[in-house]
Amino acid sequence: MKVENLIALHQHDPNADWLWGYFAKVMEWVKAKFPFYRKEMASVEWGLLYNRYKADPRLASEIEAEVKDLMRDDEVTRKTGIYEFVFSRDVRCLSLRTFTDTQKRTAYEAQGHKCAHCGREFAFESMQGDHIVPWSKGGKTTPDNLQMLCCECNNRKSAK
């Protein structure tokens, strides 16, 4: 629940001490896990992250090292998503760069219009650019790390 909604829901409560206590716990957790303030932190839904990940046992130094690396990575185009990613591991939080249409078309032609996994031929529009070495394992969004897969193979690979 967003802060605005929570406050609106309890605006007529005779005592809001519990709410202030909750926010104090959230802020204490944020400061403990992320001791270095960055401007990207301003738009993070900290209450949601606290509710989901407050029991995460990692030290702030471990988390900071990962945040620092991700902040320097040009492929991460949504820097505010880094804070959720370090807990959830959901790469969608990062809005990673995707391959350009030109890169995908070049790979498609080089592969002879065939899916790199199943080997069946598909129309360009029925295929998707895929990282051979996944981004989560250090792969970059470069032409040499691109293969074209049919939607079925790409979905199957993503589900692993």
Give a structural overview.
By secondary structure, this protein is mostly helical. The protein folds into 2 domains: 92 residues, no CATH class; 58 residues, DNA Binding (I), subunit A, CATH 1.10.30.50. The chain has 7 helices and 2 strands. A two-stranded antiparallel sheet has the order 1-2. The longest helix is centred in the N-terminal third of the chain and has 17 residues. The two termini are 31 Å apart. 16% of the residues are buried. The mean pLDDT is 91.
Spell out the blueprint of helices and strands.
Elements: H1 3-9, H2 17-33, H3 46-53, H4 60-72, H5 82-88, H6 101-110, E1 127-131, E2 146-150, H7 151-158
Alpha carbon gap, first and last residue: 31 Å
Please indicate the count of domains: 2
Q: SSE order, as H and E?
A: HHHHHHEEH
Oligomer: single chain
Strand proportion = 5-15%
Work out the number of β strands.
Answer: 2
Main sheet properties: 2 strands, antiparallel
Keywords:
160 residues; mainly alpha; 44% helix; single chain; DNA Binding (I), subunit A; 2 domains
Describe the structure concisely for a colleague:
The chain is mainly alpha-helical. It is built from seven helices and two strands; from the N terminus they run H-H-H-H-H-H-E-E-H.
